[in-house]
Amino acid sequence: METTTARMTADEYFAASEEGDHLQLVDGRLVVNEVRLLHQLVQTRIVGALYAWTQQVPGRGLALGPIDIVASEHDVYGPDAVWIAEGRVPADLRERFDTLASPQLEGFGLDLAALFSAPDSQSSTK
Q1: Strand order in the sheet with 29-32
Q2: Is residue 9 part of a domain?
Q3: How many domains does the chain have?
Q4: How far apart are CA 119 and CA 126, in angstroms?
Q5: Alpha-carbon distance 50 to 60, whole Å?
Q6: Residue 80 is part of which domain span?
Q7: Is 14 domain-assigned?
Q8: Predicted pLDDT at 74
Q9: Residue 109 near residue 94, CB atoms below 8 Å
Q10: How far apart are CA 13 and CA 2, in angstroms?
Q11: What is the pLDDT of residue 27?
């Protein structure tokens, strides 16, 4: 006897999943991506390089780590790195990102620009 499982919709996926659970919805079925250390190290470098590139010249858009991308009613992907061209960045997202990426987050003392900038090619760590 064959049993049929109904395909999950994107709305059902969002109701059932939690942020950071490494799930994607592919053709209405949940897919679990187990993240490995090497994968995370490479992903971090890619997102960091994209972020540094976007910050070097105004108008280069926005670089993000994994976010949910709804491709259809039955497909929600979580790419490891995302670049959004400047003209396609929603205004509310740009405003929130610019607030977080300000050189000093008030009360935190963390210099995000230095944290995500490309290493200075002039410096040496001998």
Answers
A1: 29-32, 23-26, 75-77, 69-72
A2: no
A3: 1
A4: 15
A5: 10
A6: 21-116
A7: no
A8: 92
A9: no
A10: 24
A11: 92
